[in-house]
Specification:
- The complex is a heterodimer.
- By secondary structure, chain A is of the alpha/beta class.
- In chain A, the strands form three sheets. A seven-stranded mixed sheet of chain A has the order 4-11-8-1-7-5-6, with helices on both faces. A two-stranded antiparallel ribbon of chain A has the order 2-3.
- Chain A contains twelve helices and eleven strands.
- Chain A folds into two domains: 298 residues, 3-Layer(aba) Sandwich (Alkaline Phosphatase, subunit A), CATH 3.40.720; 49 residues.
- In chain B, strands 1-2 form a two-stranded antiparallel sheet.
- The longest helix of chain B is centred in the middle third of the chain and has 18 residues.
- By secondary structure, chain B is mainly alpha-helical.
- In chain B, helix 5 crosses helix 8 and helix 7 packs antiparallel against helix 8.
- Classes of the chains: A alpha/beta, B mainly alpha.
- At the A-B interface, strand 6, helix 5, helix 6, helix 7 and helix 8 of A face helix 4, helix 5, helix 7, strand 1 and helix 8 of B.
Chain lengths: 398, 236
């Protein structure tokens, strides 16, 4: 049995007080091992959880349907302080994250999947807004824009200033590229060798200037990645933190784990795409609630705990999370609405500016589509020179 | 004529009428020797003539120039939104992961196809009965290089690969690899690019414990893998 005396009590109090002072007043730099905070002034990143098929507005605009549609009742909703009434599934997130939830309309005016996706991602332009944002955010990451575990969304394409979409399909090979391994080919030599591979490919690039753009982008990005000095962060510990045992990124749990890995490696924007959300006939919302509670929320809890609450990496971050889809689901049959009520969670989110849809899943005709939405993300990440113009949703950003 | 016979004949007559054209339909309604006929090879404006600025390349008609126009309902051209592109360009595609094992066996002359199963997730091989157009990324290119390096290191046997690569030896070996792997004769610049990896770029490896001299077999493997990671092998 351990002794508890006056000396040990004072020692414990002193350590606790010191830690509190160290983390809250002096900042992480004062204590190297202290947990870094997630704050609006930190290193920015955006994780987009894209629900292929649609994202029911019952999650971010629950008040619109209270006791009338999608099975929304007082018992399955939760109130964000000063913000929107949301589905109770979000109340399982850490309080720090729950308190920074708000809702924004993406009014793309399209009720077909391709049109809705394009409206939210590119408005038909050649370079997706996410890639433009990732490029404009700068930073020292060599892979600035990533998808984790694959998946396609219309409009999520293109290249801007060397930034293109890099898919992460396996954590092992990704960590090998980021950090190297004595059993593998040397990273620095591999970078030079791949530079020569690229030079040998000049003829093919000339013959297929558009079709092999992804290959050229891949060569450029892998050379930059291999040339960069490896960071000391233990990337291999990320997946086990989510209970993932293998290295393949093939389910939503591993996708969010890979998203954390990539954000810690310097990625600015990461897309985790999940399928199965074209929920026609889900009139009481039970199908989407079940998928949200069992598949989406559990790894998100881990993500917020690791990135916001207990971030052991001595880097102060500003990690924003977006949940969106092709469109919201319409009434009465949970079909296709003409815009998407997206959820945003971030340190710079002003929750009181939330934008509810009407009780028939209608959208404000004055709200913008994807470009306006990404102008908000530019504001939340404090991206200087964001290519989307002024923030079209000033009420939603502090 | 019976009514039933008449009704049967209607679609046939309609089809005959639709397929019938004037006697000069194939010539676009113009005399082939007419100097104003755009299809006349003697007409300098014939888009099928060779491009005078690039005489080695015959002028190719674009789809818009060569296709038959059809007007649909509402007077809209059915081909109005068809994507336009030059002919014979952008035809290269990234090889699917499922083909790589056999391709390594073929170009390296291996006894059996290597097992690349551990790399499947990196390349994003689609599930059975699904198809996704393969694309290169930074990570799968690095994985392709690593796989190539291991195969080269394990299978490059013989006196050549136990000796430190010289410039002459490297050029000879690289030319041989490139010919086999690309199924064409490489250019001098392509040979030099491969040889540079063996002779110059791979002299010293950096391990966690510090730098070390790279063994000859690994120097050859670095160069061999550079050819296997080029578009000449990874695309078709």
């Amino acid at each position: 049995m351990s002794k508890f005396n006056r000396r040990s009590f004072l020692k414990a109090v002193g350590i606790g007080a010191g830690a509190a002072v160290g983390t809250r007043l002096a900042g992480p730099g004062f204590m190297p091992d202290a947990m870094a905070q997630n704050s609006g002034a930190g290193k920015p990143a955006v994780l987009v959880i894209y629900l292929g098929g649609g994202y029911n507005a019952l999650f971010g605009s629950a008040a619109s349907f209270m006791n009338t549609a999608f099975g929304v009742t007082a018992g399955n909703t939760a109130q964000v302080p000063g913000g929107p009434l949301v589905d109770a599934s979000f109340n399982r997130l850490p309080k720090a994250a729950f308190d920074k939830i708000s809702t924004v309309q993406i009014n793309h005016r399209s009720s077909d999947h391709g049109g809705g996706q394009r409206g939210g991602q590119s408005e038909g332009g050649p370079v997706g807004f996410a890639i433009q944002l990732a490029s404009s955010m700068g930073g020292d990451g060599t892979i600035k824009m990533a998808t984790v575990g694959g998946g396609n969304v219309n409009g999520l394409a293109g290249t801007m200033n060397g930034t293109s979409i890099q898919n992460i399909g396996d954590a092992r090979s990704t960590i090998d590229a980021l950090k190297g391994n004595d059993t593998l080919a040397d990273r620095a030599i591999a970078a030079k060798a791949i530079e020569q591979s690229q030079a040998m490919s000049a003829g093919r690039f000339a013959a297929s200037p558009k079709g092999l753009t992804h290959l050229k982008d891949g060569y450029d990005t892998v050379r930059a990645t291999l040339t960069k000095t490896a960071t000391p962060y233990d990337y291999a510990a990320v997946l086990p933190g989510y209970g993932v045992t293998g290295t393949a990124i093939n389910n939503f749990n591993s996708k969010i784990a890979a998203a954390e890995l990539m954000i810690r490696a310097g990625a600015n924007v990461v897309y985790a795409i999940d399928g199965g959300w074209d929920t026609h006939g889900d009139r009481d919302g039970s199908n989407v609630r079940n998928m949200m509670n069992t598949r989406i929320i559990p790894p998100l809890i881990t993500f917020f705990n690791r990135m916001w609450v207990n971030n052991t990496e001595p880097v102060q971050r500003n990690v924003n999370v977006v949940i969106m889809g092709d469109f919201s689901r319409s009434l009465p049959g949970s079909d296709h609405a003409t815009g998407c009520a997206a959820t945003i969670i971030g340190a710079n989110v002003k929750v009181g500016g939330f934008q509810r849809v009407t009780n028939n899943v209608g959208f404000d005709p004055n709200r913008p589509s994807g470009r306006g939405f990404f102008s908000l993300l530019g504001a939340l990440t404090k991206t200087a020179g964001a290519p989307f113009g002024a923030n079209a949703h000033p009420d939603l950003a502090v | 004529m019976k009514i039933s016979t008449f009704l049967f004949a209607i679609p046939i007559l309609a089809a005959v009428a639709a397929c019938s054209g004037g006697s000069d339909e194939l010539t676009g309604g113009l005399d082939p020797n007419d100097p104003n006929n755009p299809n006349n090879p003697n007409n300098p404006n014939n888009p099928g003539n060779p491009d005078p600025n690039n005489p080695g390349t015959p002028g190719e008609k674009t789809c818009a120039e060569s296709q038959q126009g059809y007007v649909g309902l509402g007077g809209l051209a059915l081909h109005g939104t068809r994507a336009e592109s030059a002919a014979n360009v952008d035809r290269d595609r990234f090889k699917p992961f499922s083909s790589l094992s056999g391709e390594f066996r073929r170009v390296m002359g291996l006894g059996q196809a290597p097992n690349l199963g551990a790399s499947a997730a990196t390349f994003g091989e689609p599930p059975a009965r699904f198809y996704a157009e393969p694309k290169a990324t930074a990570v799968n290119l690095f994985e392709a290089y690593q796989v190539s390096f291991r195969l080269c290191e394990a299978n490059n046997t013989g006196a050549t690969f136990t000796a430190v690569p010289t410039d002459a030896a490297a050029k000879t070996q690289c030319a041989d690899w490139e010919r086999k792997i690309w199924s064409r004769t490489p250019t001098p610049a392509e040979i030099d690019a491969c040889a540079k990896v063996a002779v110059t770029d791979s002299v010293t490896e950096t391990l966690q414990a510090g730098p070390r001299q790279t063994t000859p077999v690994r120097r050859w493997a670095y160069a061999c893998a550079s050819v296997l990671t080029s578009a000449g092998f990874l695309t078709y």
